[in-house]
Structures are given as C-alpha cells and as structure tokens.
Specification:
This protein is an alpha/beta fold. The protein has one domain: Spore Coat Polysaccharide Biosynthesis Protein SpsA, Chain A (Alpha-Beta Complex). Helices cover about 30% and strands about 25% of the residues. The chain is built from eleven helices and 13 strands. Strand 2 and strand 3 form a beta hairpin. The longest helix has 12 residues.
C-alpha cells in the first residue's frame, strides 16, 4: 500500500458568516492577511509539499475562488503592457496553470459539514492517501506544516495523521480532541477522537487543527457516516472509526497556527506579518503598538 501523498483537498464551500458583511460578496478564503489571501497561503503550502493534484470543493456562489487561484492570462498581459513586469510575474508565479497544473473544482451545493465536503472529492482523487487543508487555519513557519506532515506520514505507520496542538481546558469544546495513548517523537498516538467535547468530557487537550493526511478508506467511511455535532457529517467522526484498524496519530507541527476563521485570529495573523514588513512595522511603532528600541550608541 502506497503512503505517497499526491492529492490535496481544499474545502472552501462555507459561507463565512462570522465575517459578514465582508463575505457577502467576497469569499472568506479571499480575505487577505496583510496582502495575501488565505487561499494563496494554502495553495503555496500544498505546492511546497509536492502535491500533484489540488481539488477545491467549492460552492456555485464562490466562483471568485477559481478566478483567484487560476492563471489570468489577460490580466498578466495587460500588466506587462503597462510596464508592470514585476506585478505580472508575481501573479503568474502565484497562480495555478490550467495546462501545467492538475486542478479540479467540484461543488458542495448544501452545507452538510466538513466530512460531506471531503466526500464530494472522492471521484477526483489520485490513488493513495489524501491531504486535507482548511485555508482558514493559517500555519506559519520556516517549513510548511503539510511538508512536515507528508514526511512524517510517509515514514510512519498510522493510516490517519492529523495536525494537533495543545489547547487550554476552556477551549477544548471548540475542537476535535484526541484520545491519547502515547507518543512517538512529534507524533501523539491515539485510539480515537471526540468532536467538540465539554471540558469535563475531553479525553485530552490535544486539539485537531486544519491539516489532515487520510488513508483512502476515509471515503468509504464518509459514505456511511451518520450526522454528528451540529447535525453535520463530521470528518473527525469518520476518522475516529478507523483509528483502531488503521492507526491514528496527531502531528505536533513546528509552525504557529492562527485561527483565521475568527476576527481575533485574523487580526493576530495580520499583526504577526505586519511586524515583518518595514513599512507596517513603522506604523505600529508610531502608534505605540510596538515598543521602540533605543538607538545603539556608536
């Protein structure tokens, strides 16, 4: 059985109601963190991890996502005609090419949950395990989270590998949480997981965040998965069903995760990146949001 990860699924059909009215006309995945849309970070992460096929599970109302991720030859030509060569080159490099890149768009017409969204991609995946990337979970670091996970998955034994981080007791009810049985380097071993448990019922504080590498059998599990929390088909429930037979691991990634599905998380991520931009940093210092360091005497 191959452990080579060739396919990445991007569930992007959600309505982004927590960001209304901003998301009335603009998909939440296109909201920028500083100057780069969330979906671009996700695409770049998949590219760096060596993903061959990208599948976007979208909604008919969110055609703007396809317009963003795919190459716009006309716009590139216009920029070059106006002498904006650098901008044209940057757009071309960031975009996916309909000829050179293997990209699929499928529709999730009804909001039936993350598990249902992943299941919509079944007929389009390449053989072997699949990765799932949630764009509103932004993970920044020197090495991409998915790159780290692919390396660990291909060298390991667990059939399902999920990205995890330790959260405080008062936050476990927001996540899927692992039932931990042990540890193997950066991988937390588990025999199951619970979706959004109460603090007193949580089996651990190892919370699942938006990166998954799943055995191909996940699609069979999703086809028979009953509704769970919120009346939706929960991906975590389908993963948990295979924990014993396939093995389940939680990967403790090295980067920093920002919950950009919330306003506070978007602000936190924006400030983090603004600190690395000289112009933005100058504004933060002028407003007293960053401590001014005293000049070093010559």
């Amino acid at each position: 059985m191959t452990r080579h990860v060739r396919t990445a699924i991007f569930p992007v059909a959600g309505l982004g109601t927590r960001f209304l009215p901003a998301t009335k006309a603009t998909p939440k995945e296109l909201l920028p963190v500083l100057d780069t849309p969330l979906i671009q970070y996700a695409v770049d992460e998949a590219r760096h991890a060596g993903i061959e096929r990208m599948i976007f599970v979208s909604h008919p109302s969110k055609a703007a996502i396809e317009r963003h991720v795919m190459e716009d030859a006309r716009l590139t030509r216009e920029l070059r005609a106006r002498g904006k060569e650098n901008a044209a080159e940057a757009l071309s490099e960031a975009a996916l090419c309909p000829i050179e890149d293997d990209v699929r768009f499928v529709m999730q017409n009804e909001p039936k949950g993350l598990g249902h969204a992943v299941g919509c991609a079944k007929d389009h995946v390449l053989p072997g395990p699949v990765a799932v990337i949630l764009p509103d979970d932004l993970i920044l670091g020197p090495v991409g989270c998915l790159t780290e996970m692919v390396k660990a998955y291909e060298a390991g034994k667990a059939g399902h590998l999920v990205a995890t981080m330790e959260v405080s007791e008062d936050r476990v009810h927001r996540y899927g949480v692992l039932s931990v049985t042990g540890k193997d380097g950066p991988i937390v071993l588990a025999d199951g997981m619970v979706e959004k448990p109460k603090a007193e019922d949580a089996p651990s504080r190892q919370a699942v965040v938006g990166r998954y590498i799943l055995d191909a059998s996940i699609f069979e599990a999703l086809e028979t998965q009953t509704s769970g929390a919120g009346g939706e088909i929960q991906l975590t429930d389908a993963i948990a069903r295979g924990a014993t037979s396939l093995g389940l691991g939680g990967f403790q990634f090295s980067g920093t995760r920002f919950d950009c599905g919330s306003k506070a998380g978007m602000l936190e991520a924006t400030l983090e990146l603004a600190m690395e931009d000289p112009d933005c940093l100058a504004v933060l210092k002028e407003r007293g949001l960053v401590e001014q360091r005293p000049a070093v005497a010559a």
